[in-house]
Amino acid sequence: MLHIHKFGKFQFLGIALVLIISALVIWYPRIQFRQDKIVVAFGDSLTRGYGVVPPERNYVVYLSDYIHLPIINAGHSGDTTSDALIRLQADVLDKKPDIAIVFLGGNDFFEGYTSEVIAANLKTIVHKIQSNGAKVILVGGDTQIASDYEKAASKIASDEKVFAYIPNVLNGILLRKDLMYDNVHPNEKGHEIIAQKLLPALQRALLEN
Predict the structure, then answer these.
(1) Which of 33, 158, 169, 170 has the maximum number of C-beta atoms within 10 A of its C-beta?
(2) Entry pTM
(3) SS (H, E, C) the chain
(4) Tens of pLDDT along 44-85?
(5) Which residues pair with 57 in a beta bridge?
């Protein structure tokens, strides 16, 4: 005999809510963003993808795959914030981006530059990009290794009112052999984690006019 279960009001609402949430989870990653949006990733070897095998699977490529849009990789291995400032016009501003991901400072740390130097350069970079009409997603490195640099980046994000600040993006990646190519650069798996941390901010930026 067929048994028909009669749902109560709250049971029905609960099931409906689960179905709605499931639909949103499926739908959100498949949003079709405007194809005329220009996104630039501006950084050093971490953005370039140094050490990643195969070389094209860096966080920039992962993000591009997630959003189904090309992203200009303006990463240059070895760059300090001072080096990046010199090429800012040609590699970022001349591209007229809608969104710029800025991920710099690691080489400043290794070369012994003070947090004041990185703060001054990053502030100029962020200010010029935003004055050019682009949203900035500013990325921080790791608070345990370079806490002064992270504080500087956080203050710039607040002072300049960047679209999004992603702090401590290397936390949980550094010092893990399974996620690192060497002592400094993440491998493909590490880059995938970085991309996943940046993705929500990038999606929000793309959804805004």
Answers:
(1) 170
(2) 0.83
(3) CCCCCCCCHHHHHHHHHHHHHHHHHHHHHHCCCCCCCCEEEEECHHHHCCCCCCCCCCHHHHHHHHHCCCEEEEECCCCCHHHHHHHHHHHCHHHCCCEEEEECCHHHHHCCCCHHHHHHHHHHHHHHHHHCCCEEEEECCCCCCCHHHHHHHHHHHHHCCCCEEECCCCCCCCCCHHHECCCCCECHHHHHHHHHHHHHHHHHHHHCC
(4) 999 999 988 766 789 999 999 999 999 999 999 999 999 999
(5) none
